[in-house]
Amino acid sequence: MVISSDKDNAFSQGNKVAEVDFADYESSVSAALEIIDFKQKLKSISRVTIKPNLLEAAAPPCTTDVNCIEAVIKYIFKNNSNIKISIIEGSGGCDTQESYEFLGYNKLARKYGIKILDVDSCRLLRLTNENALAYREIYLPEDVFDSYFISVPSLKDHTITTVTLGLKNLIGLLPKKHYGGYWSYNRSDVHRVGVDKAIFDLNNYIKIDLNIIDGRIGQYGSHLRGGRKFSPAKNLIIAGYDALEVDKKGAEILGHRWQDVEHLKMIDASLKCELKNGKIK
Amino acid sequence: MSEISNIKNRLAIIEQKISQHEYSKKELEDDIKDITKQIHNAVDSANKEQREELNDLLMLINYIKTKYGFKWFLK
Fold first, then answer.
1. Do A226 and B54 touch (CB under 8 A)?
2. ipTM over 0.95
3. SS3 label, residue A83
4. pLDDT at position A149 over 90
5. Helix, strand, or coil (residue A36)
6. For residue range B5-48, what is the model confidence (pLDDT) as tens digits?
7. Among residues A148, A134, A150, A153, which one has the least CA distance to residue A247?
8. Is it the case that residue A147 has pLDDT exceeding 50?
């Protein structure tokens, strides 16, 4: 069964959210991307950067399944073989290379001749935003800004932020030399400033062009390794250009009202100009 | 939340037993599995502040699981 819905909020350049029942990664990811007509967009794209969620060297659903990323890559190459693809990540709980190796991403990169980037060794850009809530000055990987950016999170609850989906996935782009050190996690500074504020700022600095949620299994209660898996599995792939709407759908599937998820509420309010100094009017 | 206090007390006992080498690996594994379940249950009814505290406890438990190389956890 394939469901698609149109919303009238244009956070990104389109507003259709595709929700496809999972059969296997290749056919389900492809079906979702067909619904949103990604094929058409690929004609004018030369570089793509894909950001999975590899929190640590732990199996899915704690992390994005490498087979989901492979399905995205196959779809891209099938429709435009000239595109240069990179995968980027900065793991929270271990060295990023450890996650890449353990979860099969290095092997994937060799198979398709794509680049694997570690946020902690990328060239960084310094950006500023006077209206930021937590980071008026920020350092982010240069590669994210000159390519088509795809966020591919795993469908998960988060102990602190309720859900961790496409928008929150951007935390893994903060280099540890600037954002580590608050406690042992590599991007732990976001806990010092407030995770929801950090997510809000990151999504003002970086525009997610496409958000694809790997909802094959789903994890509830906690985002950490060893969290509880949904049984039966959620068996879904969700995709859309409007990252906020895709995350709202993901939150709903996880059993939450999006209005109860602070960062979704803040970003939604900012789009409706209802946010002032980090507080919803 | 008294449940968090219960969990912390229980964790302190586990840590003490570890430091005094009173555990067989099987016993430690059983206790860790059980306290993980207790934390997960507590998360379900916790408010935001309590969730932050429970998150720290889960991370501590995960550290123990990793340190003692529980295969079911690491795979």
1. no
2. no
3. coil
4. yes
5. coil
6. 999 999 999 999 998 988 888 899 999 999 999 999 999 999 98
7. A153
8. yes
Residues belonging to chain B: 75
Whether B43 contacts chain A with CB within 8 A: yes
DSSP state of A247: H
Residue A239 CA, distance from chain mean position: 11
Q: What angle do CA A84, A90, A94 make, to 5 degrees?
A: 135
Return the structure tokens found at A8: 């009238």
Q: Residue A141 forms beta bridges with which residues?
A: A124
Alpha-carbon dihedral of residues A52, A164, A21, A206, nearest 10 degrees? -50
For residues A180 and A192, what is the distance between their CA atoms, to the nearest angstrom? Answer: 10
Contacts with A98 from chain B: Cβ below 8 Å = none
pLDDT band at A7 (very low <50, low <70, confident <90, very high): very low
Facing residue for A224 by CB, picked from B44, B52, B62: B62
Average pLDDT over residues A111-140: 97
Distances (CA, A) of A59 to A94, A227, A250: 14, 11, 20
Report residue A148 as tokens.
Answer: 């088509």
pLDDT category of residue A178 using cuts at 50, 70 and 90: very high
Of the candidates A59, A160, A226, which has its C-beta nearest B55's C-beta?
Answer: A160
Which CATH code for domain A2-272?
A: 3.40.50.11440
Instruction: List Cα–Cα distances, A123 to A53, A140, A151, in angstroms.
Output: 20, 8, 20
DSSP letters for A99-111: HHHHTTHHHHHHH
C-alpha span between A70 and A48 (Å, rounded): 14
- Whether the CB-CB separation of A147 and A76 falls below 8 Å is answered with no
pTM over 0.90: yes
The β-bridge relationship of strands A154-158 and A210-220 is parallel
Chain A contact present for B52, CB below 8 A:
yes
Q: Which residues of A touch B62 (CB under 8 A)?
A: 224-226
- C-alpha A212: how far from chain center: 7
Residue A93 · residue A185 · CB < 8 Å: yes
Cross-chain residue pair A222–B43, CB shorter than 8 Å: yes
Cβ atoms A238, A253 nearer than 8 A: yes
